[in-house]
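Structural prep section.
Before we set up the soaks we want a predicted structure of the protein with D-glutamic acid in place, mainly to decide which crystallisation condition to try first. Input record follows.
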Amino acid sequence: MARVNRQAVGVFDSGLGGLTVFKALARLMPEESLIYFGDTAHVPYGSKSPGAIARFSSTIAIFLAKRGIKLLVVACNTSSAWALPAIRKAVKIPVIGVIEPGARAAVRVSRGGRIGIIGTEATVKSGAYVKAIKTIKKGARTESAACPLFVPLVEEGWWNGGIVDAVTRKYLAPLKRARVDTLILGCTHYPYLKPVLARVMGPRVRLIDSAEEIARKTYGVLSELGLRAPRGRRGRREFYASDAPERFKRLARRMLGPGVTRVHAHPFD
Ligand code: DGL
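Run finished without errors. Recording the tokens verbatim:
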């Protein structure tokens, strides 16, 4: 008989970005309970030092582990690039990062092996995507660009419009010049801007939104470990923000719909 486990899956990010992963998880596995933590007190992570990123990330992981989660999804590329060892040291549950699934998807769909990567300053500086891509496909060519203004735009609720367009054109120009055939959205905030990104890159460039990949990977790990929730009943959803929970709630509802009824405040100590 298959084993089942009703404990929740924990998901965290610096802010709204990880909700793109949360949405994909909820769509693929509606029966799983999900607890989300948005570190709105410290967003953006992308301009922080590796030490600070590791400290914030492991504090959140410990908080979620104390809430009884069975698995943690680090729905933040910046934390995945810099903080996985610290998180894995801090908690004893399985931890899934976002870089490897995105790199794998990009190599799979790229026709010419010319892969662009956009992400936060810290993610690009880490070289984590380039390393993951070259491990999977040695001969792949990569071109990376940091896009530091995208996260504040998304957190502000500016997901389209003239200013987003102008910033996008400027950031993506080197990638267009490099003629990448695939573009990894290497920050979980960027899928909010997907229509603009797609328009600027043009129809021949495949965009990799790793949310779906991560959801599939999470499904695989839960199944493998015998940790899936019983089917039939919808799982519960719980939200925490480390600052301004009402503001977070307003924007989270725009993303996920009216199902976000309450966001708990959980200030850092
Ligand atoms: N959404 C996060 C990421 O995937 C963090 C962005 C930030 O806070 O700078 O990298």
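Observations: The CA atoms of residues 103 and 172 lie 19 Å apart.
Flagged for discussion at group meeting.
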